[in-house]
Amino acid sequence: MSTKNWPLWEIFVRSKNGLEHRHCGSLHAADSDMALENARDVYTRRNEGVSIWVVESKHITASNPENNGELFEPAQDKVYRHPTFYDLPDEVKHM
Amino acid sequence: MKKENLYNYILGIADNSLILGQRMGELCGHGPSLETDIACTNISLDLFGQVRSYFQYASKIAGDGRTEDDIAMLRKEREYKNVLLVEQPNTDFAYTLGRQFLFDVYHLAFLKELQKSTDLTLSAIANKCVKEVSYHERFSSDWIKRLGDGTEESKQKMQEAINDLWTYTDELFHQTDADKAMVAEGIGVDVTKLKENYYSDVSQVLEKATLQVPVSKYFQKGGKQGIHTEHLGYLLSDLQYMQRTYPNMEW
Amino acid sequence: MSEEQIRSLERQFDERISRDEKIEPKDWMPEKYRKTHIRQMSQHAHSEIVGMLPEGNWITRAPSLRRKVALLAKVQDEAGHGLYLYSATETLGISRDEMYEQLHTGKAKYSSIFNYPTITWADMGAIGWLVDGAAIINQVPLCNTSYGPYARAMIRVCKEESFHQRQGFEIMMKLANGTPEQKDMAQDALNRWWWPSLMMLGPTDDVSVHTEQSMKWKLKRKSNDDLRQQFIDQTVPQAELIGLTIPDPDLKWNEERGSYDFGEIDWDEFWQVVKGHGPMNKERMKARVGAWERGEWVRDAAMAHAEKKRYRSEKKAV
A10 lies in a domain? Predict the structure, then answer.
């Protein structure tokens, strides 16, 4: 067995200009150059991309689902952030 | 055949891609990592795509009913015109990548010239191939640097592969009769003019890879005249197996 | 955590799944859920990469350039699918190398169908048509399974696999409409691959061990017997269409059930292959282990090179 294995990378692909990069999966590579090349060969075989980002997985900090209550629920009742909260007469067509 | 020189010229180009594609295809499922396996198969697929474009054109020029598959699979061993370099076996990954790299540098320079061909079909094929081969060259150069400047073991293996394969590099720049005729018509590429840059490009990568540039002046040749190494016969017996065993059938 | 707390968490967890909510990697999950998923997903990934070997066997001998590129692309897709599935499994806290280790030591299983040899070109047709056909029946419901990364990987896999079965059927069709020799080759391949394909959908429901739990977690949506019946019902007319005969004398249409009745499957053969004594088990493992071992110095070199590069750029930055 190898003593050191290739680390894991997260791959983000922009499918066409105008759209954001989207996470499409992960793969293993020894360094960022190889990660880019591997991502090109693995995730854009069917013409799926025009731009690739690679990030070594260990550099991603993720929120913990245990904290979802305090993180996300407070936003649920802030209805005044949405346009439907405000009453307008029907005569006002586009606003 | 009216355009015999052109026909032979196209075969000379296409056979390199055919035989190298076949060699890369052997690795599918046996690569050193899943990611690398997928990458090598992509190279093989690119090469076979190129082969099909060339042979479809050759088939049109021949005009005698021979299809792309007849041309690819039904010639005798002496009729294949690929350089000796591309038929060398996958001894290990250093040989595979070394062979790829030594061919890619030539292939890219060749296609860049072929783009200027007065033959519009050939220049169109070259336009498409040059992008694919730019990537091959980037991929193989990166790997030469990794393996050369990696561990002691990998350096030794990579150096050995380069030393062994070096003897097949000079043939890339030999001109055949078809070459000369096509250069004269503005269709073909004068490969003799690519030689100097080739060795300087290759040396640059080898130096970055902390490898020695071989100094041997003894070179092998013969592929372009159909005089091959012993390896080609076995490759052809696989490539031709179905067409020979079941002649005149459609698949 | 007390046992009672765990039970309550498990209850909430099951409710989430029955509401069709997806489970994501960092969510709490019962240990059994994690283990079952690691087992099934890694087995699925192993099947993809071992599955490259029987078809890879014919890449250098494909009869035409068109067939060669299609086969290469297909086998390459299988590598890709293995990769997506290994990546999805890694989100459960196991590394790809650990999974390889399990495969190479025989601890992990893979689909037994790949322990049969591919001896003629027609086997490429039969595998695409029958084996991929059976696999698709298994896989499509998994696009909606409860574990998010698995479901997403399967959506990708299913989208890409749509050409595989067509590729296989086209090969068979061409052979069946070809010379008598070609037609014999196609019939022979169907004869050899038919029963193993039926076995591929798993043991009968009365002996299948994991089914109930797997149904709850949406790892399975239909029982093995139902899947098998679905496969037979859809495949028989396809065989008829190209003039090939399913090698089962007991096969006949049952008007009342609206399905085909079929003959007895040789389950002794199935278990023999599962237990490692199929015609190609040893060779398949030798090929996988060999590739991995021959690749070790390459993988090590890439890591060593990456470290050197990092060291140099850090030194430059100082």
Answer: yes
Question: Domain with A40 in it: what CATH number?
Answer: 3.10.20.520
What total number of domains does chain B contain? 1
User: Could you say which of A2, A26, A34 has the minimum Cβ distance to residue C300?
Assistant: A2
Q: What angle do CA C153, C158, C161 make, to 5 degrees?
A: 120
Cα–Cα distance for residue pair B116/B118, rounded to 1 Å: 6
Mutate to test the interface with A, among B35, B45, B140 (most CBs of A within 10 A): B35
Which residues, in sequence order, are CB contacts of C197 under 8 Å at separation 6+? C113, C130, C131, C133, C134, C231
Q: Which distant-in-sequence residues (6+ apart) come within 8 Å of B45 by Cβ?
A: B21, C69, C72, C73, C76
pTM assigned to the model:
0.95
Instruction: Give tens-digit pLDDT for C125-150.
Output: 999 999 999 999 999 999 999 999 99
Q: How far apart are CA C113 and CA C281, in angstroms?
A: 10
At position B248, the amino acid (one-letter code) is N
Tell whether B152 is covered by a domain: yes
Q: Which residue does chain A place closest to B33, by CA atoms?
A: A28
How distant is the Cα of C290 from the closest Cα of chain A, in angstroms?
A: 12
Expressed as residue numbers, the domain containing B12 is 4-245
Encoding tokens for residue C228?
Answer: 């098998």
